[in-house]
Amino acid sequence: MRMRASLFVAVAAAVGMAACVAVANATTTAATSSSYRRCSVYKAAGLRSGVYVMRGRVSCSTARAILLGVAEGKGRYINNGYAYNSYTRYHGWACAGNMGIDICQYGRRPVRQPKREVAGSVCAYNSRCPRLMPRDGL
Predict the structure, then answer these.
(1) What is the pTM of this model?
(2) Cβ atoms within 10 Å, residue 65
(3) In the chain, N or C: fewer CB atoms in 10 Å?
(4) For the CA atoms of 71, 50, 114, 96, what is the dihedral angle to 10 degrees?
(5) pLDDT given at position 84
C-alpha cells in the first residue's frame, strides 16, 4: 500500500513538471508565433497607424506605401453595394478597412488565403503603436 502511494506521488510530480514545462514553452513562443510584428508607422488624416506584414514576402517600405496611399484616398474604390464586400484597388493591391484596421492583399480582389497580405492599425490616441498585434485580433 505504501509503495502504491509513493508511486502515485512520483507519477503526479512528473506529470506536474511536464505540464509546467509545456506552459513555459507555450508562453515564450506565444508572443512570436501568435503575433504580427510592427515594422513601421505612418500618419494620414492626423492619425498614426502601425504597419504589419501579415503574410508573404513584402518589404516594410512597400507595405507602408500601399497603406499610406489608400489612407490618403488614392486608388479606385470598387463598390459592390455594401461596405463589407467593397474595397479599394491601388497598385495591384485590394484593400478593405473597418474600425481602424486596413487590410491589403496583393491581387485583383480579396481572397480567403492570399499569398501576400499587410495590415495597418490605427494607434491609440496620444500613445505609441503596439509592437505586436495578435493574430486572433483581426
Answers:
(1) 0.71
(2) 17
(3) N
(4) -30
(5) 86
Cβ-contact 119, 54 below 8 angstroms: yes
Q: CA–CA distance from 79 to each of 75, 89, 95 (Å)?
A: 13, 11, 12
Q: How many helices (H) and strands (E) does the chain have?
A: 2, 8
Burial letters 33-62, b for 16+ CB under 10 A, else e:
eebbebbbebebeeebbbbbbbeeebeeeb
Chain segment 40-95, per-residue pLDDT in tens = 999 988 889 999 999 999 999 999 999 999 999 999 999 999 988 899 999 999 99
**Structural domain that includes position 100:** 36-133
Q: Are residues 94 and 121 in the same domain?
A: yes
Instruction: Give the angle subtended at the CA of 74 by the CAs of 72 and 76, to the nearest 5°.
Output: 140
The span from the CA of 68 to the CA of 43, in Å, is 8
